[in-house]
Every structure is written in C-alpha cells, then in structure tokens.
Amino acid sequence: MINFKELKEIKGDASFRKFYRNKNNYSIVVYAKKEKVKNLLIYDAINKILNKNKILAPKLLYQNYKNNYIEVEDFGDNTLHKVLKHNKINKEQIFKKILKTLSRLQLIKDKQVINLNSQKYKLLEYDNKILSNEAKLFSEWYAPRKINKFKIRNFKKKYENEVKKLLSKLNLKNDTFVHRDFHVSNLMYIKKNIAVIDSQDALIGNKAYDLASLVDDVRFKTSNKLKNKILNNYFRKLKKTEINKFVNDFEILSVLRNLKIIGIFMRLAVRDNKKKYIKMIPYAWEMINYRMKKNREFINLKLILKRNFPKFVK
C-alpha cells in the first residue's frame, strides 16, 4: 500500500485524476476516485494498445484498482510543449517527427484489449452523437455567461442545429484510432523519441481529428505559416483527390473542437475553480475565425456566432 504523504504531487492536470511522482520506483502513481473506470482502467487499456503497436506509452508497473490507483512508468517532465518553446529549435522538424508518430497511431488496427481486471475493453466509435454533445459544452457552459438570458434559448437551438448540419458534411469514415487530445502537451520527448500520454479518451473516429488537435492547439500558439507547413507535410501522404475532402473535415472538426474547448475551459473555471484556463479562450476564438473564413460550410454558424459574440467573431 502506497503512502501518498511520502510522494510529490504533480500539479496541472485538468481531469479528476491526481498524479504523484514516486522517485524510489522511478514511477508515476495515478490516483482517481472519481471517473475511476476511464482514468485508471481505460487509461491502462489504451496504453497497452499503444505499446503493442510499438508506440511509447506508460507501462503499468503496479495496480491497486480497489484502492483507486495504479503505478506507471515515469517519462519525466520534458513535454514537446517545453521543447518547442525554445526559440532556437527547428519547430517544423519537430512537427515532422510528431506527424510520424501520428501516422503510426493512425495505422493501429487493434480495437480490443484485456484490461487490468482481466476483462475485455473495446474501443467505441467517435460518432456524430458524441461530437454533437461535445460541441454543446459551448452552448451549455460558455454561452449562458455571455448572452442575455432572454436570448439564450433561441441561440442554443440555432447553434445546436447548425452543429448537426456541419457534422453531416463530414466526408471521412470513422475507421481510425483517434487519441482525441493529441497535442504537444500530451507528447513527451525521451532520448529523441516521442511518447504518448493522456490517452484514456481514445476512440475509433475521423482521421482528421487528431491532426486538428495538433495543428490548432489552443495551449501552444503557432503562426498560420507554420500551421500550413504542418498540414502540407501531412498531405504529402494523401492522394490529390483525397486532400479537399480531408481539409473539409479538418476545418469542421477544428472549429467544433475549439468551441468545445471554450466550453470546457469555462466549466473548469466555474465548476472547478480552475481559472487559469480562461486566458486561453481568446486564442481559441482566433483559430475558430481563421478556419471559418476558409470554408463556405461555415456561413450559417459564422452568422449565429457573430450575432451573439461580436467581440470575438470577425
């Protein structure tokens, strides 16, 4: 039984998990009493799938699921977010390396694994219902705090209908392993290799989703020039006939993801008193604007948002 008082807590995670560094074992203790199945059981199951496919992810060292914790490998603190913050680093080269990891993730065919309780866990589909519910986080948490209470009902109806219409315009099948939070803060740099963490939300979904998470990452600002370079590097492996379909899905998923993130950040601030996330909301709006101006499918959504959030929508 671990004595948590002897361990150093690692701050900064937005979930209900707590992380502790166990220096004696060179390990990380993950504690989760709330959302225990996702944060411990599924987290380890997905890591097993990643390791099976030769992708670095924290291996299970010990488990005491009954007492709400597991112990996994410690990959240190060197996230790719930290690496990329150094001005002298060649950012494009680092992102090329990340794209190679993404390509390997997208080749994963395993959808089922035996979890630490010796039960089968099967990856679910990242369908339009889930995507629609995620986009509602914007209308449920952010919008009511910015829109007059007499107008909010009408906004929610129009916004949520438009989200469904946009999702119906997606071209690609839900046939790809999707990490769902694939960005540089969830990628570790270990001896010039990339390790993937925070994988408990993985599903089988649209191939463009993780690329949208990476390129339009609200936590790490990149120039539009670099964003385009990353996209062009990814597109080299696609056929010319595929690129337009892919770009359409990328833009729709990027916009809906960043609307979801605005909702999540407001929820973290209001419900969990984690106010630091509020400062990232303006950049999420910037990326929403940037993607909406390039695709005619966003005409109606842009009008709805501009009418209700004129400060943020150009």
Reconstruct the topology from this structure.
Elements: E1 8-10, E2 18-22, E3 27-31, H1 36-52, E4 60-64, E5 69-73, H2 80-84, H3 91-106, E6 112-114, E7 120-122, H4 128-142, H5 152-167, E8 174-178, E9 187-190, E10 193-196, E11 203-206, H6 209-215, H7 224-235, H8 240-271, H9 281-292, H10 299-308
Antiparallel strand pairs: 1-2, 2-3, 3-5, 4-5, 6-7, 8-11, 9-10
Task: Provide keyphrases for this structure.
single chain; 314 residues; alpha+beta; Aminoglycoside 3'-phosphotransferase, Chain: A, domain 2; 5-stranded antiparallel β-sheet
Please give a structural write-up.
By secondary structure, the protein is of the alpha+beta class. It has a single domain (77-113, 122-308), classed as Aminoglycoside phosphotransferase (APH), C-terminal lobe (Aminoglycoside 3'-phosphotransferase, Chain: A, domain 2, Alpha-Beta Complex), CATH 3.90.1200.10. Helices cover 45% and strands 15% of the residues. It is built from 10 helices and 11 strands. It has helices at 36-52, 80-84, 91-106, 128-142, 152-167, 209-215, 224-235, 240-271, 281-292, 299-308, and strands at 8-10, 18-22, 27-31, 60-64, 69-73, 112-114, 120-122, 174-178, 187-190, 193-196, 203-206. Strands 1-2-3-5-4 form a 5-stranded antiparallel β-sheet, covered by helices on one side. The chain has a two-stranded antiparallel sheet with strand order 6-7. It has a two-stranded antiparallel sheet with strand order 8-11. Strand 2 (18-22) and strand 3 (27-31) form a beta hairpin. The longest helix has 32 residues, at 240-271. The termini are far apart.
